Amino acid sequence: MAYTSDQEPRSPRREVEKGDNASSSDGEPSQFNNTEADPDMGIEQDYGICQIETEKERQQPPGTRSALDRVLSRTSVTDKDPGPPPDGGFWAWSSAIAGHIMMLNSWGYNSSFGVFQTYYTSHLPNPASQIIWIGSVQIAALFFIGTFAGRLTDAGYFRATFAAGSVLTLLGVFMTSLSHTFWQLLLAQGLCTGLGNGLMFTPSLAVVSTYFKRRRALAFGIVSTGSPVGGLIFPSMARQLLGKIGFAWTVRAIGLVQLVTLIMANLLLRPRLPPRKAGPWVDIASFKEKGYFFFAIGIFFVFWGTFFPFYYMASFATSQLDKPLRYSDALNLLLVVNGVGIIGRSLPNAIAHHFGSITCIIPASFVSAVCLFSWPGVSTVGGLYAWASVYGLLAGACMSLYPPALSDLTTDYRDSNWTSDCWNYH
Fold first, then answer.
1. Whether CATH 1.20.1250.20 fits 90-418
2. Spatial distance between the Cα atoms of 426 and 424, rounded to a whole number of angstroms
C-alpha cells in the first residue's frame, strides 16, 4: 500500500489509538488495525508505515534533522500487542539472572571502589579528595548515559547498546591495569567503565521489567543481589591477590571474571516488546505526573549520600578509629557491608511483594539517613563492624526497592522510559 505524492497519508499513531474497530473518516475500516480481514496484511502494513515516514522526511527541509534522529524515526509504530507480562518462563527468569550478572559487573564493581580508594591514596601523590573523583565520575557517567541508552533500547537497539556497554566496561577495566597516574585512572576506571556500565544498566532493567508484573519485586530482588555479590567477589580478589601478583594483574583477573560473566549476560537477555517510535531524548512530559515527579525528587536525595560509605569506609578504618586497622583488615568491612546487602536486597523485596514497594522504601530510606548521621560517632573496631552491618541492610533495601517502586507508578508496562529518565535525574 504505497502512497503517491498527491495523496495525504494518515498518521499511523492516530490509527492505532482508535483501536481494532476504528474507522477512517470515509467510513471504511482502518487499514492499520483491521488485521482480521486478511492475515497477510502484516507485511503490507509495516511497509505502508515506512512509506509514511519516508514521505514525511521528504517534506521536511533538509538539514532540520540529525542523522541519528532519522535512524530512530524509522522504527515503526506497531499495533502488535505482545500481551501482558508472563511473570515466568525461561526467558523471564533468564533475564532476571542476566540482570543479576549485569549488577555484579556494574554496581558490584562500583561498590568495591573503597578497595581502590585506599590503595590509590597510599600509592599516588594525589590527596584522597582528588582520588575520590575517579569513583564519582564512574557513577556520574553511569547515570548520565542512562537516558540515552533507554531511548536506544525503545527504538530496537537493545542488543547493540548492551554489547557496546559490555565492551566499554571491559576496555575500562583492562586499561585501568595499565594506568599509573591519576588522569589515566580517571579516564579508564572513571569515564570509560562508567559509560559502559550505564549502557548495560538502564536497558537491562527496562527489559526485565517487561517480563514481570505480579512477581516484579521478586525479579528485581534477584537482579539487585548481583551488586553485593560483586561487592564480595572483587574486594576478596583484591585482598588475596594484591600482595601476591601486584595491582596490574589483580585488575586483569577482575577483568577476566567480568569477561566470562558478561558473555553469559549478552546471551541470556532478550527484549520482549517490539520496537516503538522514539520520542524526545529526555521525556520532560513524564514530570507532569505528580507521582513520578515527587518520586524522582525523593530518590535524588536518597541516593545523594548512599554510596559514600562504600567508598570511604576502608579509609575511615585505617585512619579514624581509636585503633586503626591495617589495609588488608579494613577491606573486611567492605565484605561485611556488601555481604549483608544480599539480605538487604532480598528480604525487603519479599516483603514488598505483599505490602508494596513504595510502602517499604519510605521507612528504609528514613532509617538509612539516621544511620548515616550516626557514623561520625563510631570510634571502635567493633562499633564500625556493627554499623557496617546495619547500614548494609538499609542501603541494600533502598537500592533494590527503587526499580519495582518506579515500575509500580505506571500501569503501562511498555513505558520503560520512566525508569531511564528517573535514573538519569537522580
1. yes
2. 6
